[in-house]
Every structure is written in C-alpha cells, then in structure tokens.
Amino acid sequence: MSSKLTLQSTVKFHTGREMPRLGFGSGGLKDEVGVEAVAYAMKTGYLMVDTAQMYGNEEEVGQGIAQSGIPRNGLFICTKWQPPVEGSDARPTPEQVRDEARQSVARLDKSRFDKEYLDLMIIHHPRPDPEGRANHWKGLAMAQKEGWIKDIGVSNFNIKHLEALPEPLPAVNQIELHPWCQQREVVDYCNSKGIVLQAFCPLVRIRKDKFEDPVVVKIAEKHNKGVAHVLLRWSLQKGFVPIPKASSPARIDANKDLYDFELDEQDMKELDGLDQGAAGRVSGIDPAHLPD
Question: Nearest Cα to 158, choosing from 141, 172, 175?
Fold first, then answer.
C-alpha cells in the first residue's frame, strides 16, 4: 500500500468524504509571507491547508488560497475552533460556537464560485471539562447539519475525551505524532473507531537533538534523503496525515518530495523504537496532562 502513495493520495472518512494524505500547515505564517507561502504550496500540488483561529492568520490563508487560482472544489480547507483559554469562566453555548465557526468560513473561503464552506473544522483543545467539550461539539455538529462545514473533528483529545463526546463520531483527531511521541493508545483507539489521525509537529519543529538522532540520520543516509523526508514518510506509512509547515518555496517543495522511496520494515522498526511517549513531545500540549 505505502509504495503506491502519491501527492494526490487521499484517506476516506467514516462519513464517506475524503481528505488528502499530506497537508500544508500554516501555524505562525502571517502577513504577506503567509499569503505567499499558502499560494505557492497550493500551486505546486498541496491539496490541503490547515490553519486555526488561534493562529490569527485565517485571512492570510484565505487570500493565499484565492491567489493560487486552484478551484475551490480542488482544495481541502481545514481550520480549528478555539475554546476559551485555560482558567476562563466563559462557557460558550452550542449556538455561540456555531456562530464563531461561521466567522472562520467568511475569513477562509474567498472562492466566489460556490456556496462558502469549509471541508473540516476541529475543536483545538479539550478544555475545559466534559460539559464544555460537549457544548463545543454540539456547536460544530450544528454547523455540519447546516451544511457549511462538511466534516468535524477534534485535536489533542485522549480516549476518555473521545468516549464521552455526544454523536456524531469525530472524523479526525489531530495530535502530536512523530517517532519520539507516538501516542500509541490513542492511535489504536482512533484506528479501531475509524477516526483519521492528523499528525501535527511531524517535523519535531526541526529540533536539533531530534534531527541529529543517529537512528534517523542513518536511515536518511541509507535512502539518500533528508531527515525531514524520513520523518514525513514514517508518518505516511503509519497511516497518519502529516501537516508540515514551511515558509520558503525550497522547503515547501522539499516537504512533498516523499514518493520516490519507501522505508522498509527494519527502518520502521528502528523509528518505532524511538518512542518516548508524552515525554518526547516538542509542542506545549502535554498529552499526559490534559483536562479531565
């Protein structure tokens, strides 16, 4: 299966819709740099872009998508709804969540071709508690029923969070995934339920200690590829949907140069052996200490 992967490969949701197997991450890409990066990525073959209300760049991402000239129905646009910050007393109702989600659609979809919509909206974090999560989920479910968000999902949710959600079943769980932070229990649970796993931080934020790990360096040299290629190919072959971020055209191009080699069984075994659990994370989200 893995040897047949291409930049056009998709994964099917349990809802029947499909999502590209490689996305373009936009966290931190703002102003004209962000617009140009998104436009370049879309023009050169990326079919999915991922952003979030928290990134403060939905306008720029929308402008980049419009500048790319790619027809709206040829792209997959994903964003994340931002729950109230930790410690906040705010408890948005499902209707408020839906209305805030609608603002993201206006910022992102500049297509002018068809009815505005987003392909996927995700709850960015399981804050604050079970009741709050249920309300947030009901708000996105309302938007989905109204038709202007096609699929809905979650991010940074563990098994307990997923089990407690009201219907419908999330299409996606976006979590930190790379060889040093594999979150195997959540991955196994999601796989058993047909929930697609999006991998954020698939390039471990280019951390020097990770990029110079002898195991990864050896495998990269074996395939005459870069460490980033190995990490992204590992993610693809695990069945994840990595969403690497880049701003320069050279890096954007390099991050999709993944389809002329394949990691063999020994490569995958050695990379799997790097797992440090939650301790191996590089993001500020600690999967071992999330809200109850």
Answer: 175
d(CA 133, CA 139): 10
Residue 256 DSSP one-character state? T
The rounded distance, in Å, linking the Cα atoms of 30 and 63 is 11
For residue 244, the tally of other CB atoms under 10 A from its CB is: 25
Give the pLDDT score at 284. Answer: 95
What is the C-alpha to C-alpha distance for residues 56 and 67, in angstroms, rounded to an integer? 19
- Which residues contact residue 172 at a Cβ distance below 8 angstroms, ignoring those fewer than 6 apart? 13, 19, 120, 122, 151, 153, 154, 195, 196, 197, 198, 241
Interval 234-245 mean pLDDT = 98
What are the chain's domains? 2-279 (3.20.20.100)
Q: How confident is the model at residue 83, as a pLDDT?
A: 97
Give the predicted TM-score (pTM) of the model.
0.96
Q: Would you name the residues annotated as active-site residues? A: 55
Of 173, 184, 200, give the one whose Cα is nearest residue 274: 184
Q: Does the annotation list 124 as a binding residue?
A: yes
| Measured distance between the N- and C-terminal CA atoms of the chain, rounded to whole angstroms | 38
Q: Give the model confidence (pLDDT) of 64-79 as tens digits.
A: 999 999 998 899 999 9
